[in-house]
Automatic annotation (TrEMBL), chains A, B:
Pathway given in the UniProt record: Metabolic intermediate biosynthesis; (R)-mevalonate biosynthesis; (R)-mevalonate from acetyl-CoA: step 2/3
Taxonomic source organism: Oldenlandia corymbosa var. corymbosa
Catalytic activity: acetoacetyl-CoA + acetyl-CoA + H2O = (3S)-3-hydroxy-3-methylglutaryl-CoA + CoA + H(+)
Catalytic residues of the enzyme: E26 (proton donor/acceptor), C60 (acyl-thioester intermediate), H190 (proton donor/acceptor)
Binding-site positions, CoA: S152, K195, K199
GO MF annotation, one: hydroxymethylglutaryl-CoA synthase activity
Known function: Catalyzes the condensation of acetyl-CoA with acetoacetyl-CoA to form HMG-CoA.
PANTHER family linked to this entry: 3-HYDROXY-3-METHYLGLUTARYL COENZYME A SYNTHASE, HYDROXYMETHYLGLUTARYL-COA SYNTHASE
Protein name: Hydroxymethylglutaryl-CoA synthase
Any one GO BP annotation for this protein: sterol biosynthetic process
Lineage: Eukaryota, Viridiplantae, Streptophyta, Embryophyta, Tracheophyta
Keywords from the named record: Lipid biosynthesis, Lipid metabolism, Steroid biosynthesis, Steroid metabolism, Sterol biosynthesis, Sterol metabolism, Transferase
Length: 403, 403
């Protein structure tokens, strides 16, 4: 609710101008009632209930599915001229153990409409979807997932390979020339942790070397040629290949990936929002320099579903220019205004969350002193499991109640 | 899996021809991994993993969201020429009490592509989405929902009113004349139980009478005029209005709704599949007589989201003609081949389901004697909650294994 109201306010958009609202999330508040219906509270106030779209779910991929759905809607005959709005939101945690620091929470709202500065190259898109048990949440009573960390990483890299090969194939068919990392200015990855992003980009470089693409010079190809005979499975586990390809990839990584890593590195995993936080980092870092540039994004959700897709950026016109977007996002200030807590406090909070997960009949501390003005926060879950929120007053003193 | 493989076989479609697969469901097997990824097993076998789409969730509405997404995809620039496939599937139960008989289970698969015999009139569509606690599943550890039966019915009728008024308004703007029940040959409703369908259609007739539409004769309008001064809320509770409007609606109901009620009446509630089972009843009952006809559908999911939309039917060409669809569905035979069980047996099965809901480490009885050939069934959920299925041999002896 905070992300949606903030977006509407900052771009001065009447809630009546929204014709589609869709949520991507892997966080289950309710197994039947969608998160989208909670967000409808914002729009009901202005009398707008004619808003299509519900929740899209598959691990961290739901936001990408929601985004594609919204873009397709704008291009379809059922589009009614209004904006689409996509929300990626999660609060995801791990049981105690080495994976715990890769939990995280975030919400990102994106507006979709015609004549945007960020344009989909819809034909340049490839998916890889399969049945896998790498990360899943089958224990319905627990907030924690079941994770096979090693399998999850292999699944991610396999899906990446598959998407990259398929996208390259489609590009070659359309453009009559080979695709390689040289064809895009930037590469943005789903970023649960930065090491995986480094590995992922190195994997694309390895793919380019194998296909003898001109993006990699002879010295680089030579360094990677010893690994050309590895089977797929072997290559995902091979540490020497990992090191060699990251070394060859290094200068390209600094140029084409580095500018996308700011927020994921600072904030950690954000699940459905992760890829778009990385993309936001790029807009923050490069802004007007992105005019005319192609950006390739790779979205991954365990289970598994993955898509690699292409965007073409242009400066665009106020209020939807890249400069305006960068200034509205205000990334530097937001990063600076975070609060630091000791791990003990986090563990304590997690114990409280464990008790309250799926529970009813409790009130929260209602302490909103650390929240930014305009933030919605949970007040109470009543005996019928109904959730009540309040909104922290804005600096100018106005207050809304989410009851 | 049964519905998808059956559709592909009966229409002789190569799994490689599917470019989008999307599931609508309110049944949570896993909070992160989508049902769609389970279905990918069918397509991985044929080497097709480039299939977009995940799961859409909001109570019984998820299937409609998935269907709209698929149709929009075919109309968008990201369509790659292949078919879309939509699956509506649920297994939903109630705790002991009066609502228990309204539980149910079903799976319906629908193919989406160009030049179809069932065509969307995309501009003739109106949604009503809002934040409500009429039926929801906040207790994550339990398979049973929290239900406010009376509120749920009021929400349904309010959403119906809102959609009908908005759709009528859009129609009038486009066509320059009033919309009324006379403008469509058939009306199909989300059908948890038949009494609600009768009430719903009577509500449309009441709306027509209030707006002085020519669809209702003077005698009918006179019968309903005493209720014209009721507020919305009063009118949802008024038993006399209910009786009077159903009486006025009766001849129209028999003609425009009766042919849609066969399967929902025989099978009971089917959740996301309910609306489409009602629509299948219509195709079964009227088949070629539907050529050129407009059909209005009303989809409702608690929480809440609802859309009223319009389809235009035509006989179409083999293999996607209405006659072929009716013969493939083979509704009469399927209804005849059901098995009857005493309520005690059902209660016993429910106890077993309660124990196994969200559980791991169990094997099923593997008794598939009552299943139709080609049906997938659960064998085992292992210690890591991984689910293993088998497929009952087809009559010709071929067997597939879902491991």
């Amino acid at each position: 609710m905070t992300a949606v109201t903030s977006l509407l306010e900052k771009y001065n958009i009447d809630p009546k101008q929204i014709g589609r609202l869709e949520v991507g999330s892997e966080t289950v508040l309710d197994k039947s009632k969608s998160i989208k219906t909670f967000l409808m509270q914002i729009f009901e106030e202005s009398g707008n209930t004619d808003i299509e779209g519900v929740d899209s779910t598959n691990a961290c991929y739901g936001g990408t599915a929601a985004l594609f759905n919204c873009v397709n809607w704008v291009e379809s005959s059922s589009w009614d001229g209004r904006y689409g709005l996509v929300v990626c939101t999660d609060s995801a945690v791990y049981a105690e153990g080495p994976a715990r620091p890769t939990g995280g929470a975030a919400a990102i709202a994106m507006l979709v409409g015609p004549d945007a500065p960020i344009v989909f190259e819809s034909k340049l898109r490839a998916s890889h979807m399969a049945h896998a048990y790498d990360f899943y949440k089958p224990n319905l009573a627990s907030e924690y997932p079941v994770v096979d960390g090693k399998l999850s990483q292999t699944c991610y890299l396999m899906a990446l390979d598959s998407c990259y090969k398929n996208l390259s194939h489609k590009y070659e068919k359309m453009e009559g020339k080979k695709f390689s990392i040289a064809e895009a200015a930037y590469f943005v990855f789903h970023s649960p942790y930065n090491k995986l992003v480094q590995k992922s980009f190195a994997r694309l470089v390895f793919n380019d070397a194998l296909s003898d693409a001109s993006s990699i010079d002879e010295a680089g190809k030579e360094k990677l040629s010893p690994f050309s005979s590895l089977t797929g499975d072997e290559s995902y586990q091979n540490r020497d290949l990992e090191k060699a390809s990251q070394l060859v990839a290094k200068p390209f990584y600094d140029e084409k990936v580095g500018p996308t890593t700011l927020i994921p590195k600072q904030v950690g995993n954000m699940y459905t929002a992760s890829l778009y936080a990385a993309f936001a980092s790029l807009i923050h870092n490069k802004t007007t320099a992105l005019d005319g540039k192609r950006v390739i994004l790779f979205s991954y959700g365990s289970g598994l579903s993955a898509t690699m897709f292409s965007l073409r950026l242009r400066e665009g016109q106020h209020p939807f220019s890249l400069s305006k977007i960068a200034s509205v996002m205000n990334v530097s200030e937001k990063l600076k205004s975070r609060h630091e807590f000791p791990p003990e406090k986090f563990v304590e909070t997690m114990h409280l969350m464990e008790q309250r997960y799926g529970a009813n009949n409790f009130v929260t501390s209602k302490d909103c002193s650390l929240l930014a003005p305009g933030t919605y926060y949970l007040l109470e879950v009543d005996s019928k499991y109904r959730r009540f929120y309040a909104k922290k007053a804005l600096a100018n003193g106005s207050l809304a109640n989410g009851h």
